[in-house]
Amino acid sequence: MNTAAPPLAPLPHIPAEVRCAQDYEVLARHFIAAPSLAYIAGGCGRDLSVAANRQALDELAIVPRLLRDLRGGHTSLNLLGRSLPHPLLLAPVAYQTLVHPRGELETARAAGAMESVLLVSTLATRTLEEIAAQGPGERWFQLYFQPDRGATEDLLRRAEAAGYGVLVVTLDASIKTPSLSALRAGFQMPEQVRAVNLDPYPVPPPVSLERGQSRIFQGVMAAAPGWDDLAWLLDRSRLPVLVKGVLHPEDARRLQAMGVAGLVVSNHGGRALDGAPASVRMLPRVRAAVGEHYPVLADGGVRSGSDVFRMLALGADAVLLGRLQVYALAVAGSLGVAHMLKLLREELELCMAQAGCATLAEIRRDMIYRELDEA
Q1: For residue 322, what are the domain limits?
Q2: How remote is the C-alpha of 31 from its chain's centroid?
Q3: Which of 74, 268, 293, 339 is catalytic?
Q4: Is residue 9 part of a domain?
Q5: What CATH number did the domain enclosing 144 receive?
Q6: 268 given a catalytic annotation
Q7: Most distant pair of Cα atoms in the chain: their distance
Q8: Residue 184 lies in a domain
Q9: How many domains, in total, are found in the chain?
Q10: Full-model pTM
């Protein structure tokens, strides 16, 4: 018999227990039902890549520099022609009404208040038009290719019409399954939590398999996008196109050559291939492949300002925050997400000051030390 207490409703204030951004993760277990928390915290399979993201960041030591002049310090940057006050972006996270009744509408309010870029998922539980109407702020749309090109193009046109500034195409998640931990916890997506942006489009009929055919290769993957689909999208988009889910340097070079505006180094938070390397491990290799000035973002396991510093040092121009925004949303709605961003920015500023960096440009690769590299 399940004797766990029911989850608490989101608070209208910041809990006194929150002293750092990661405290939202600690508190979230009181505000999210256990099966849903297992789904959110988990990845795919045995959660190996989820663990790898955290382990890889923890193995990176920061080597401070001395006697730097920090009086003019700031965290501002220019990204894709946009002037941003900090490098903290909110990653595209699906199904946010799973943890808050207003879901992505609350997250959008927080992003606007903290001048953070919000990446809105195709699988959002509020329409992309509703989210865009939540006041000022820079918003980008994350696109999953649909089996029908007409549906894919319609999503693109809707994003353009609603004022989204960048299209972020995720290419590493054509097939996904919940983690074993989520399955064992009995997680099932509630009926009322659904990807409403896909409501206008017909559901493709199931693939009819012949004897001996694979339900993976000839079934689920039959509609997976290929290089020609990406070329088709690039030809039709009036928005700059980023590709999310890049880990291999050869893929990075090919995407750059095709005219993609930038990359997001990501293992999908461990939710795609279980056993894929940590994003931060592949980040320097992708950066080396595309050169110093090509836009590269990254995500995966970030829980503190020092984690952000590590990713910036290893080649990221900006960092995406996934699970942390969901935990903060569950605890205190838009106020929690805004507070989490404020804390994380201050943690980054503190780390920069202690490391001797007045600007993001001064955060360099030689400030990162990993003992295993010396073996």
Answers
A1: 23-65+75-189+224-374
A2: 21
A3: 268
A4: no
A5: 3.20.20.70
A6: yes
A7: 71
A8: yes
A9: 1
A10: 0.95
What tens digit of pLDDT does each residue of 319-371 get? 999 999 999 999 999 999 999 999 999 999 999 999 999 999 999 999 999 86
Work out the average pLDDT over 213-225. Answer: 83
Find, among 173, 120, 117, the residue nearest to 145 by Cα: 173
Q: Is there a domain that residue 213 lies in?
A: no
Q: pLDDT tier at 174 (50, 70, 90 boundaries)?
A: confident
Residue range 10-59, pLDDT digits in tens: 999 999 999 999 999 999 999 999 999 999 999 999 999 999 999 999 99
| Distance (Å, whole) CA 9 – CA 254 | 47
Better pLDDT: 375 or 198: 198
Within-domain flag for 8: no
